[in-house]
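Retro notes, structure queue

What went well: the backlog is down to a handful. What didn't: a couple of records were mislabeled last round, so from now on we paste the full input next to the output in the thread. Example, using DUF2975 domain-containing protein from Brevundimonas aurantiaca:
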Amino acid sequence: MRLPLPHLLKRGEGRTPQRWAPITAPFRALGPGSVSSVLKVALDVAYVLLWLVTGLLLLLLIAAVFIPLDNVNITVSGETGGRQLPLTRLLLLFGLGAATAYFGGFMLILRSLRLIFRTLIMGDPFHPANVRRLRQIGLILALVTGGVWLAQGFVAARLAPGVMDPQGLGELLTPVFSVLIVFVLAEVFREGARLRRESELTI
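Corresponding output:
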């Protein structure tokens, strides 16, 4: 049995938009106290952690030039088993250098994201600098993806043949798709910044 509209309103089952406003207000996407501000804090924490990890790896990379490596072996494991290899200075420098570049690249990505979210907290998402920051994120992400693909292929072919398989081209589809999305977002932000500039000139 359907109740008339006045009964529904009286029982609180047909709230007006004004009565729903206090419930949805805490979930604002922009401005102080919004979801963007919470994500900005998370990005700040992750950025500091990545900065520390990258700095530690850089110190280890420098120290690896002087560390004696006599009779030191490492075990490279894969799906088909494992293999012991002598730890040469070239192998150590290659591994530490690749890890430093990997974490350093994501640290730079988080740095640009923090600056973008800062503009979101200020309520200015279409800041002209965000276009450049998004393009930087896309470029760094492309470099990191390509670097990981080449490094794993080198390890599989030269350092651990038959133990570690190189990445196939199919495994690049998701990273390449992510890079393209970032560049598309950069163009969207560029168009938004252009429209905002034209609106300001009109006013």
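Agreed that this is the format going forward. Reviewer comment attached to the example: Confidence is low (pLDDT under 50) at residues 5-25.
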